Amino acid sequence: MTLPTDRPDDPPALPVEISAAPDIPYGLPEHCGQAMVRTCRLSKSYGNFTALSDCSLEVSPGEIFGLLGPNGAGKTTLIRALLGHLHPTSGKSLVAGFDPQVDPVAVRRHVAYLPGDARLPRHMNGKGVLEFFAEIHPSGELSRSLAVAEALELDLSRRVAFMSTGMRQKLALAVVFGPRTPILILDEPTANLDPTVRGQVLEEVLAAGRDGRTVMLSSHVLSEIEQTCVRVAFLRRGHLAHQLTMSDLFQRHRVVARTESPLQQPTNRRSKTTALDSEARKKTTASADAASATASPATPDAMARRGDREAAFWEVPSELRSSVEVGWLDDGRIRIDTAGDLQPVLGWLSELPLVDVRIEPLGLHAVYRSVHFGDEAVVSAGPPCSTSSDVGA
Ligand code: ADP
């Protein structure tokens, strides 16, 4: 079941497409391979403008998968291509084992879809809308829709035409959470909702995941993705810029600290430093030493001590080099980003002359900034794509 939208190239609003009930509960059809959703080099252009470019990703059964990106990043384009609502310029996709270009009805039978701009029959009241959709969908469950509406504190007696934007969003959510399809695709599900209701919607998403359903969720609210998703893909100007599992994210930390006395910041790497390779480290240490030598007329002993200390900063122990990135914040504090086990990093830090040390989880916000504003904490952009023949139905 997919709710209609106002997009010009979407299928007619009503009736909502229905067919036989999904013949699989939440598992994967045999012909589907390992992924519930798979795209390979999926692209969509409008004239010269590319809305989605070479997007390859996989979503596993039961995974709650987030799509993150600013407005215009291509999230909706990707989702609509998955539902067969638009024809990709190139590339392929499979949803529950079906190619949306070949068998869109089979795809939509397995998917409950909340569009970003859902359209509902304006002449009906809320209860009537829920009854209507529960009746026409073979796996519709009015009781579930009513329970969701109640949890969202929606007044079902009001006609859609007289509902606020937030009320309509709640109603659309109650419709979409009704049938137990194996896949749930939610485009900005918490848009126009107040914080309490947002929390309730996220609970429903988590419950779907606990039921073993596969969820794709687009949002630009980072905390919501952090709270619900197992994995997240970052879209940027139509490109899949980065993918990350939440378990990896939760292993990342940022250490921010002051040094006992100001160190010379390398002039060529302001606030954007990664783990330094040995050549760069030598140069940086040399330039820092040179700068500190000119900065203060210290005694030779003091200069030597300062040189040692700076060298200690830039000399990340070899066993930590692959997981530690050292840089500077604009206020002059040192910034050390770590991935993986903190224990060995703490050992190294304890040997450095640091004060006011703060350690906190890196968080999605920092990664998002990396992806979108070019901070260097970005890692590779996800798994390699299958060949197109792998994706073929
Ligand atoms: P998001 O969902 O991430 O906000 P969209 O996928 O809706 O982004 O849009 C991606 C880009 O494609 C945007 O720049 C949007 O203006 C453009 N776009 C979407 N649909 C069309 C269309 N039918 N014709 C031209 N450009 C479009």
Provide a compact summary of the structure.
The chain has 13 helices and 13 strands. It has about 400 residues and is an alpha/beta fold.
Written overview of the protein:
The chain is 33% helix and 22% strand. By secondary structure, it is of the alpha/beta class. It folds into two domains: 228 residues, 3-Layer(aba) Sandwich (Rossmann fold), CATH 3.40.50; 109 residues, no CATH class. It has a six-stranded mixed sheet, sandwiched between helices. A hairpin with a 5-residue loop joins strand 11 and strand 12. The protein is elongated and about 70 Å long. The C terminus is likely disordered. The structure holds adenosine-5'-diphosphate. The site of adenosine-5'-diphosphate has 11 residues, from strand 2 and helix 1. Adenosine-5'-diphosphate binds next to strand 2 and helix 1.
